[in-house]
Specification:
Distance between the termini: 40 Å
Shape: globular
Structural class: mainly beta
Radius of gyration: 14 Å
Strand content: over 45%
Largest sheet: 7 strands, mixed
Order of helices and strands: EEEEEEEEEEE
Number of strands: 11
């Protein structure tokens, strides 16, 4: 059973930084795509970033390019989301997601992912 546990959320001022972590367990993740999504109150859950574990290729939503970086640590089975230059509009619950059958997909659609963490709150004050 795949388990994903997020950590690292919190309250930060605009312009600040946070690093989220997603600890994955239950499988060998070499063939998986790992992703971060976020959901603000009243909004749909939206794609933020994804990484193909085997090759390290990353994908980003346009609004976070140049500010956020997704990475993985093979030894720790952990995926990170480094968030810099945070803006109030980045405020949301951030979710880690995983799936191993995403060849030929966009990797940006929440319906493509079978496994989800419980989420971690990120609040950016102005």
């Amino acid at each position: 059973q795949v388990q994903l546990v997020e950590s690292g959320g919190g309250l930060v001022q605009a312009g600040g930084s946070l690093r989220l972590a997603c600890a994955a367990s239950g499988r060998t993740f070499s063939s998986y795509t790992m992703a971060w999504f976020r959901q603000a109150p009243g909004n749909e859950r939206e794609f933020v970033a994804a990484i193909r574990w085997s090759v390290g290729r990353a994908y980003y939503q346009d609004s976070v390019k140049g500010r956020f970086t997704i990475s993985r640590d093979n030894a720790k089975n952990t995926v990170y989301l480094q968030m810099n230059s945070l803006k109030p509009e980045d405020t949301a619950v951030y979710y880690c997601a995983a799936d191993d059958d995403l060849t030929g997909t966009t990797r940006r659609n929440k319906y493509e992912y079978d496994y989800w963490g419980q989420g971690t709150q990120v609040t950016v004050s102005s």
